[in-house]
Amino acid sequence: MTRALDLLLSVVGIVLLSPLILMVIILGWFDTRSPLFRQERVGRAQKPFVLVKFRTMRPDTAFVASHLADVSSITPLGHFLRRTKLDELPQLWNVIKGEMSLVGPRPCLFNQQELIAERDKRSVYKARPGITGKAQIQGIDMSTPELLAETDAQMLRTLNLRSYFLYIILTILGKGSGDRVRTKL
After folding, report:
1. Residue 175 binned pLDDT confidence (cut-offs 50, 70, 90)
2. 42: which strand partners?
3. Between the CA of residue 105 and those of 50, 56, 123, 126, 177, what are the distances in Å?
């Protein structure tokens, strides 16, 4: 049932939001000349997939987890996209392709070995990674691997239709801090 909802809501989302998506692509082109960001991430059963987002950082920024990136690498448009979570919209395509779910654990990078190990211990990789979930709503990011993995596992154990829609609605309403980026010291 979740897969059917994911597919239906993603297709409807892309159709209804296509003018906004097009506008962000155009603005992103002026901002960085490269509006889309693609990065290999850890998917279901630890298989790699290419996650697509709107670019929020300069193209020359190193591929690291957001909590390890420097805030100065975020573009002016990127600050807006992160705050409003509009940078996540292209992931609807990942959901349509079956690589992601709307709700699930956020996919990490392959170099985040501690998080991968913690999630593996808790069988988190049996599920598709998601655009949002309990950890994102609670402001838990990848800088705390054990807490994140436990929160993901708990969410997956208790996920039902009500919580599925609750996580989506709370994300749309701006709950959670999104991916934190360190500030300059």
Report:
1. confident
2. 48
3. 16, 21, 11, 11, 15
